[in-house]
Specification:
The structure holds 3 protein chains of 3 kinds. Chain A has helices spanning 2-29, 59-64, 84-89, 96-101, 116-122, 181-193, 343-351, 377-396, 402-422, and strands spanning 37-41, 46-52, 72-76, 81-82, 107-109, 112-114, 124-128, 160-164, 169-173, 178-179, 202-204, 217-220, 226-232, 235-240, 251-254, 262-267, 273-277, 283-285, 297-302, 307-312, 316-322, 328-335, 354-359, 367-372. Chain A is an alpha+beta fold. In chain A, helix 1 (2-29) crosses helix 9 and helix 8 packs across helix 9 (402-422). Chain C is mainly α. Chain C has 9 helices and no strands. In chain C, 47% of the residues are buried. The chains are: A alpha+beta, B alpha/beta, C mainly alpha. At the A-C interface, helix 1 and strand 8 of A face helix 2, helix 5, helix 6, helix 7 and helix 8 of C.
């Protein structure tokens, strides 16, 4: 039983070391670098971005730098460098408050005039991150259905929350913690009357009172039909949308913006991302390329002239800009500065043959992933092996045991640490 | 069950703690049915030897066997034949007299609870008396009772006398003697109190620091080991021990010279070392005197 | 190792159970009462939430914003596990009394496994009380979905406690100080895996994978036990 115990302890040690050593190294030597801010300038009609400079600061950046902010690069797709003010002036729809302060409003762009109200009326940002997609994050499956006609400025939470059961929409009263039979019956009936097939696949809504008005929830039924449900004056108001069930809607991110142009974003099963418009639930498919909703952050920036979609994984950021008719005008792909291999990252790859990560990105579920270290970790393996051989020759005046060598060859630094403690038992 | 000739065999045993050598090439064997006493001063490695014999410590070199099995790998069936008294009458003190019997009993097929209660009841304590609340002497009775109930073929008693007054030491040995009457059990015990060993052990092993040992019977030892007194003046340097002189103890006006040889050999040796040994005379010794003479006072 | 259920096996286990029961019953009961007291406090604190705010707002905070109304429980299993290991093995380590048990005519692996089973059962009973109380408190004030979330949140904490118990045992039994520290460090690492500051229920997808490190600690404890039993010169 000793041998299995040794094996188990070594496996456990290697696992624990592979979780914590890389984590410690990251905390000590690797600075997390924010993703690049990529935007489309309506002034130059070029993509423009802001990102942290990794490595030596180029003279252009130093020249444009404001006191201690030399580490930030403001550049565009042509490689032109800007300073902060120039950068903001190139994005007048975003920094419109500064434009106003600097006396640059109204704007004259493409022969049109935009005053502050015109800008405000058209500005909108829609976002979707992997962690918030249905079933990708821990959620207690009980939702509030707000009163859409509160009869006052402020929205309030109702006294109940609902759950979707196999056969109904069930309301539970928070004061009594019991099912509200009446409400349940009325909403279930209303849904069934409109052709809703239980059980529901997803409940989509923005469950907060910190929003200008309430748009209710979008329910996806068993047959992937999408229903829009509201509580108006206490009564159910159900609309079956014309959204194609073939899309197999995965998620709808509701925005509830005063402009009432878009309900929000709709993610289909094929990873196609759509704008859900107020125009009788018409969908507009966004012309994204290489978009993976489960790995990438997505952002859609809307201004009076353009819609710019930006999506990025850990290293690459992509963008497409569209005119107001959603026709793609220009695309851009950029390798973010955070992807640059610094000497500290190179050493990381060298010393850790692999690393175990337990991450819950974007508020999602905790996931276990093992990242292999790549070919350069062979160098680390060889250093660990020779270090072990030399230490054995010096301390015990003998060649090390094969078991120890195998462990180090397989687990590198982790193996070396485990063997140097438990090695005598091998 | 096959009875090997020797119950315990120690061959070429070497043990070190770091740089310190405890034994170097130690050899001895304990025949079946005998009572063996391992005697030595504190710190010579008596407990260490017991730990090695019971497999709690793996020696640096050499081989020890108990009932023919490697001591570091004694199978449960063999351990069932060994009654072990740990140094300091170690036991689970949170148990009562009855509870500890209940704890041990299921492990030993030959368990005889009468042996246990026969001994422990003489203490006159209720069975729900906690061991924690007992004196060292009372505890030794409980521990001895447990070993006896186990009906072991080999009893290993590590420093049974520790913490016991003369009365309890006597009591302990009396019970042992009674228990061992039929003579098939082998006993290996360690002690630093030699007086008690008289008329109890068949043979003794004197263990000295560094692992030198002498296996003998106490009678032979007393017959052959001698003390000779040599007068001295204060400034002179003491004679040195050699192959004839085992040990020298320095006193105010004389030296005591210990040897296994007769007075003529000792005199001759002393003369060779430049001492005037004409007034050398033999001194009568008690067993304790002889033991201290043999092992040295320090 | 043969772990078949034999008459001797049962007797052995009962004997160890008896010894451990006598040794730990009072401190164990104290731990149980302390845990019970903590859960009573959780009940009071949860009730207080509803006194301070409207029920639907408390529901919003707990069900939507991920407020953990039983956050006081987070480190209780770890502390319980650590103390339980100390209660069980410190008396065995003073004067190395464990040798008394290890001299019994039973394989040391079986003996140690029996000790660990008793310890884990004692720990499990306390945690059962904690989690039952958590279930009762949560289901009194919230719908059953909240109970599921609460259990999926507290279960990793319970695992952390089991890992703390086994890890402390790993450290206590190991005779060599260098290795003792190494074992404790590895065990602390395992405990840490279950205590990430995450939103409620975030461990859920890991499912049974969650138990693997704790389960591995059980056979791992046999190594220090072996090293204690057959102390080697190394």
């Amino acid at each position: 039983m000793r041998k299995p115990a040794v094996i188990v302890l070594i496996v456990l040690s290697v696992f624990v070391l592979a979780v914590y050593l890389p984590m410690l190294y990251e905390k000590l030597f690797l600075t997390p670098i924010e993703k690049t801010h990529l935007l489309f300038s309506p002034v130059t009609q070029r993509f423009i971005y802001k990102e942290k400079i990794v490595g030596p600061i180029p003279p252009e950046a130093a020249l444009k730098a404001e006191d201690h902010h030399a580490r930030i690069a403001y550049r565009d797709a042509d490689g032109t460098w800007y300073n902060r003010v120039e950068f903001e002036k190139h994005l007048p729809f975003i920094y419109y408050k500064n434009m106003e302060l600097w006396g640059l409003l109204p704007l004259n762009l493409e022969g049109r005039k935009f005053d502050i109200q015109a800008i405000k009326n058209h500005r909108q940002v829609l976002e979707l991150s992997p962690g918030e997609i249905n079933n990708c994050h821990p959620e207690t499956s009980l939702w509030p259905l707000l009163e859409s006609n509160p009869g006052q400025a402020r929205l309030v939470f109702p006294e109940d929350r609902f759950r979707m059961t196999a056969s109904g929409m069930e309301f539970i009263n928070a004061d009594t913690n019991t099912v509200d039979m009446d409400l349940t019956e009325r909403f279930t009936r209303a849904l069934i009357d409109k052709g809703f097939v239980f059980p529901a696949r997803s409940v989509n809504g923005k469950f907060t009172i910190l929003k200008p008005f309430d748009e209710g929830v979008f329910l996806v039924d068993a047959k992937y039909e999408v229903f829009h449900v509201k509580r108006r004056d206490g009564h159910p108001e159900v609309t079956q949308t014309a959204i194609d069930s073939a899309l197999k809607t995965r998620h709808i991110k509701i925005s509830e913006n005063q402009q009432r142009r878009y309900y929000g974003l709709l993610l289909a099963k094929d990873s196609g991302l759509h704008l859900l418009t107020y125009d009788n639930y018409r969908l507009v498919k966004l012309p994204l390329e290489s978009y993976d909703p489960d790995r990438m952050d997505f952002k859609l920036l809307i201004n009076p002239l353009y819609l710019t979609a930006v999506w990025s994984d850990e290293t690459i950021i992509r963008a497409v800009t569209m005119d107001t008719d959603y026709r793609p005008l220009e695309r851009y792909t950029h390798r973010m500065s955070r992807a640059i291999i610094t000497p500290a990252k190179r050493i990381y790859d060298m010393i850790f043959p692999f690393s175990v990560h337990l991450n819950a990105t974007g508020g999602g579920y905790l996931k276990l992933s093992i990242r292999p270290g790549g070919w350069i970790s062979v160098v680390g393996l060889l250093v660990s092996l020779s270090g072990y051989v030399i230490a054995c020759r010096l301390r015990h005046k003998r060649f090390p045991r094969v078991t120890g060598l195998c462990l180090i060859a397989a687990f590198g630094l982790y193996g070396l640490i485990a063997v140097s403690f438990i090695g005598s038992e091998c | 069950m096959v009875k090997p000739k020797y119950i315990i065999e120690v061959n070429h045993l070497t043990h070190r703690f770091g740089q310190r050598t405890i034994y170097e090439d130690l050899n001895f064997s304990v025949p079946s049915g005998k009572i063996f006493g391992l005697l030595g001063k504190n710190g010579v490695g008596k407990t260490t030897l017991i730990k090695i014999l019971m497999g709690f410590l793996r020696p640096t070199h050499g081989r020890c066997t108990v009932f023919g099995e490697d001591s570091h790998n004694l199978p449960p069936a063999t351990r069932a034949r060994i009654g072990l008294l740990f140094e300091g009458h170690l036991t689970y003190e949170f148990m009562t007299i009855a509870q500890i019997e209940r704890f041990y009993a299921p492990h030993y097929p030959k368990w005889n609870r009468n042996d246990y209660y026969g001994l422990v009841d003489r203490l006159g304590l209720p069975h729900n008396h906690l061991i924690r609340n007992m004196s060292c002497g009372q505890r030794s009775q409980v521990v001895l009772g447990l070993i006896m109930a186990q009906q072991p073929d080999l009893l290993i008693l590590d420093d049974y006398s520790m913490g016991l007054d003369a009365g309890y030491r006597r009591l302990f040995l009396d019970y042992m003697r009674e228990y061992l009457e039929n003579g098939d059990r082998t006993v290996f015990l360690t002690s630093h109190v030699i007086q008690d060993m008289e008329k109890f052990v068949d043979e003794v092993i004197f263990l000295e620091s560094g692992g030198r040992l002498l296996t003998t019977s106490l009678d032979t030892f007393m017959q052959t080991f001698r003390c000779y007194r040599l007068s001295r003046n204060h400034k002179s340097i003491a004679p040195a021990p050699d192959d004839v002189i085992k040990n020298i103890e320095t006193h105010a006006g004389y030296w005591d010279v210990f040897s296994f040889h007769d007075i003529y050999r000792v005199e001759e040796k002393l003369c060779r070392q430049g001492f005037n040994a004409s007034n050398l005379k033999m001194i009568n010794m008690t067993l304790e005197d002889a033991f201290i003479g043999y092992t040295g006072r320090y | 190792m043969r772990l078949s259920v034999t008459r001797e096996g049962i007797d052995m286990f009962r004997s160890i159970l008896f010894k451990e029961y006598l040794k730990i019953r009072l401190p164990w009961l104290t731990l149980l009462i302390l845990n019970g007291g903590l859960m009573a406090y959780v009940a009071i604190a949860t009730r207080h939430l509803f006194v301070m705010d409207h029920a639907e707002m408390v529901w919003y905070q707990v069900l939507h914003l991920g407020r953990i109304h039983y956050s006081h429980l987070k480190y209780a299993p770890v502390v319980t596990g650590l103390l339980l290991s100390c209660i069980q093995y410190l008396p065995e380590m003073t004067s190395e009394r464990l040798r008394l048990t290890l001299h019994l005519p039973v394989s040391p692996n079986r003996l140690i496994i029996a000790h660990i089973m008793v310890g884990l059962t004692a720990f499990g009973l306390i945690l059962f009380v904690d989690l039952t109380a958590l279930t009762l408190i949560t289901s009194w004030y919230f719908p059953f979905e909240a109970v599921t979330t609460a259990l999926w949140t507290a279960l990793p904490w319970a695992m952390a406690g089991a890992a703390a118990y086994l890890g402390a045992t790993l450290g206590l039994l190991e005779p060599n100080y260098r290795l003792k520290l190494f074992n404790l460090a590895i065990a602390a690492g395992v405990v840490g895996l279950y205590l990430y500051p995450l939103s409620p229920g975030a461990y859920r997808l890991l499912g049974f994978k969650l138990t693997v490190p704790v389960l591995l600690l059980i056979p791992a404890v046999l190594l220090p036990a072996y090293r204690f039993r057959y102390r080697r010169v190394s």
